[in-house]
Amino acid sequence: MWLAGLLVPALIGSAIALTGCTRETPGTAMAPSGVTALPQSDEDQITDLVERFEQAWNDRRFGALRDLMCAEMRGQSEFDEDALQEARSGSGLLDLAITELAITGDTAEAVIENDGDDPDDIAFVREDDEWTWCEF
């Protein structure tokens, strides 16, 4: 009991001593001059593409989803916004994970699982310096 009598005042004293020990630095944080961001690796770009594809599908943003597709897919009627909306109404949310990825130049093949099941081989193509989803 006597230990509690010593600790409580010491802790209160420490808390009082720490009050007001913050420092505010006004202004905007900036990167040092001459420093540029490193470009993302192809793997990171494809991972980001898969995440954006999943989010667009789940959010029913079919225009954004089409923007992620290769030109060949966008040219097919089965991938217009109405067809995508119809396909989405009969299915659930996506939870995609890349389990394998092989990149060769401007093409890539990935094994992607949805919610840990049903692995699919998905093709990607680099068009205008951007990776696009090129298989459904």
List the helices and strands and how they pair.
Blueprint: H1 2-18, H2 42-58, H3 62-67, H4 71-74, H5 81-89, E1 96-104, E2 107-114, E3 117-127, E4 130-133
Descriptors for this entry?
136 residues; alpha+beta; Nuclear Transport Factor 2, Chain: A; four-stranded antiparallel β-sheet; globular; disordered N terminus
Characterization of the model:
With 136 residues, the chain is of the alpha+beta class. It has a domain at 42-133: Nuclear Transport Factor 2, Chain: A. The chain is 39% helix and 24% strand. It contains five helices and four strands. The protein has helices spanning 2-18, 42-58, 62-67, 71-74, 81-89, and strands at residues 96-104, 107-114, 117-127, 130-133. It has a four-stranded antiparallel β-sheet with strand order 1-2-3-4, covered by helices on one side. Residues 1-23 have low confidence and may be disordered. InterPro entries: NTF2-like_dom_sf. Keywords: Signal. This is DUF4878 domain-containing protein. Residues 1-17 form the signal peptide.
CATH class wording of the domain at 42-133: Alpha Beta
CATH-derived architecture of the domain at 42-133? Roll
Number of strands: 4
Instruction: Tally the helices.
Output: 5
Low-confidence segments, given as residue ranges, are: 1-23
Derived from helix and strand composition plus strand pairing, the structural class reads alpha+beta
Q: Give the SSE string.
A: HHHHHEEEE
* CA-CA gap between termini: 70 Å
Largest sheet: 4 strands, antiparallel
- CATH fold call of the domain at 42-133: Nuclear Transport Factor 2, Chain: A
Molecular shape: globular
* Strand order in the largest sheet: 1-2-3-4
Into which percentage range does the β-strand content fall?
15-25%
Mean residue pLDDT: 81
Overall radius of gyration: 26 Å
Helix content: 25-40%
